[in-house]
Amino acid sequence: MTVGSPAPERALNILVTTSPILSHLWDVVPTAWALRSRGHDVRVASLPNLTNHVVETSLTAMPVGRRLDPSELPVAAFTEGGSLATAFAQANARMSGLLASGLLEAVEDFRPDLVLHEPVELAGRLVADRLGVPAVHQSWGPPVRPRLRRALAEGESRLRARFGMTEPARPPALVLDVCPPAFQTPDLRIDAPHQSMRYVPYNGPGAMPDWLAEPRKGPRVCVTMGTVLPENGGLAIVGRIARALAPLGMEVVVPLRPAHRELVDLDLPGVRVVDWLPLKLLADSLDVLVHQGGPGTALTALGFGVPQLALPVFGDEHTNAMLLERCGAGRKLDHASMTDEDVVAAVRDLLEDPSYRQRAQDVAAQIAAQPSPSHAAEALEDLVRAWNR
């Protein structure tokens, strides 16, 4: 395929499926935009929990099933005992069952030519197999680790059996791989054709705040724990890190949603508590980012060449933290055993050793060199053409 290949003779119906977790939706938005910009009818299917967020992206929402109570969402597994991978996969399979039931009815009116799903959403591939259309795996970063992969496969097998599908799920027809060369994990690679695609950050809607134009009072360090951890104990980690860094002459920026601001007392010199804003708006002004190791957070900051300190808490955050250290663009600490002195020393190292910034900028150049989502949309058109021959 060459860049600039012609669009299909007719507009395609593209079904995008996502778990009802906000960051999972964000990962598929740039690809959905690219497909829609080429004239295709793109619909984003999830449970009603995400409907308003899909509408905020200007994409077409396809809510199916019932709205889940927060205790039923897969993120609730973070607070359960036992195997986190198993608990997460079980909760995700329950959610995917609700989505699959609604989708099998919805596709009677909207028959997709292709289904694009994020890594842990199980209903999209089931629907694609039932209809005989290609299923495309939209990565959010490195592939999930073996334990979670096995747990998801078991949940998917049981889910398919519920719908009378006893044969194993087909491998993805294509994997859209957003990891640059320095962020690859060959031992975890999914056995399917891959299409490299530039990671284009979408972290929700937002506006540039006035304070970003104000003179800085020192190196700017942002502390964030993503979209999930603040609901599951992460605010305590944010507060602790900000208080440790506050006396050091840095500008410590802490973005918080309104519901969280009153839960963390950070009225300290050197700490700027701000309204939550998309990380992509802030990243270009940062000297260091401290975060939980989420793939979207890590890749957004890498795209702007920002050194990072990762404090992984759950599963695959450890993979991202390891990769940040391996490529030389960051450091990692164990959130359970780290001391305040460890955090201060790591942040100082990231600020004072120019090699971290240089390596982060090297990875940023790799990301910029990857094919754009528009190029990936052309590859998906070619996939549909080849599938229907």
Question: What does this entry look like structurally?
Answer:
This protein is of the alpha/beta class. Helices cover 40% and strands 14% of the residues. The strands form two sheets. It has a seven-stranded parallel sheet. A six-stranded parallel sheet has the order 10-9-8-11-12-13, sandwiched between helices. Strand 8, helix 6 and strand 9 form a beta-alpha-beta unit. Helix 1 crosses helix 13 and helix 3 runs parallel beside helix 5. The radius of gyration is 21 Å and the shape is globular.
In brief:
By secondary structure, the chain is of the alpha/beta class.
Enumerate the spans where pLDDT stays under 50 for 5 or more consecutive residues.
none
Mean pLDDT across every amino acid position: 90
Q: Classify the helix fraction into a percent range.
A: 25-40%
Total beta strands: 13
Q: How many separate helices?
A: 13
Structural class: alpha/beta
Report on the biggest sheet: 7 strands, parallel
Overall 3D form: globular
